[in-house]
Design goal:
Order of helices and strands: HHHHHHHHHH
Helix content: over 70%
Distance between the termini: 33 Å
Largest sheet: none
Radius of gyration: 17 Å
Number of strands: 0
Shape: globular
Length: 228
């Protein structure tokens, strides 16, 4: 799936498109749940860019926009009756299931976006900036730190707490099996591998397809209905 077909101009353009999407979706829709999460992350990136907290603002902005365009491209595909990447299909297929809870939608979207889209976005940004992945590692880590903080917020606000009845809740066990930190580590390794394979397009495409399928499988597991 290529980046979004619509023109996105900087982080402000990404924010505008996310706000517009939010205005069209019911609050309980699974895509709307993820969109709110991702909008909060992108707003924080924008604030940190304005505050000069990125050592290389151009690199950070480029990575953030290329990253967001992957998600927006999936939205565009579904709206045009085309198939989104495999990593996004579970969220779009199960977005209205009454047995799937809001934190499942949020983390399934984060899984798709981090596990698949971020690796491709690093490669996109390297091509755009004429640099190697290692030169984007600080920006990668900063964006990942923002997502980690937000994931913790999701878990604290929407997941059950530690008392005995809540520990028995299947949601606690399901979401506790997924780790953003492990996903980040795998994504960085995937980005470096894809960059190393850039001169072998058939091999790189095969690697990307398998990554997409594997991340989609994990997203589907995160969306296991917990109630009828």
């Amino acid at each position: 799936m290529p980046p979004s077909e619509q023109l996105t101009t900087g982080v402000a353009g990404v924010l505008s498109r996310m706000h517009a999407l939010a205005a069209t979706l019911p609050a309980q829709d699974g895509v709307a749940v993820f969109n709110r999460v991702y909008l909060a992350v992108t707003q924080e990136v924008d604030r940190q860019l304005d505050a000069g907290r990125f050592a290389d603002p151009r690199a950070a902005s480029t990575l953030d926009v290329r990253f967001a365009e992957r998600y927006l491209a999936a939205v565009d595909a579904v709206r045009s009756d085309r198939r989104p990447p495999a990593c996004w299909r579970p969220l779009f297929q199960w977005r209205r299931h009454p047995g799937v809870r809001p934190p499942q939608f949020a983390l399934a979207g984060i899984n798709a976006h981090i596990g698949h889209d971020l690796a491709l976005a690093v490669v996109d940004a390297c091509h755009a900036l004429g640099c190697e992945p290692g030169e984007l590692e600080d920006e990668f880590d900063r964006v990942g730190d923002l997502l980690t903080a937000l994931e913790e917020h999701i878990r604290e606000d929407l997941m059950p707490g530690p008392d005995l009845l809540q520990i028995a809740d299947p949601l606690t066990h399901l979401l506790g099996a997924w780790s953003l930190e492990r996903a980040r580590e795998a994504t960085w390794a995937a980005a470096r591998a894809l960059w190393a394979l850039r001169g072998l397009p058939d091999v790189a495409q095969g690697f990307t397809d398998r990554l997409d399928a594997a991340v989609g499988f994990a997203s589907r597991m995160l969306l296991t209905p917990l109630a009828d």
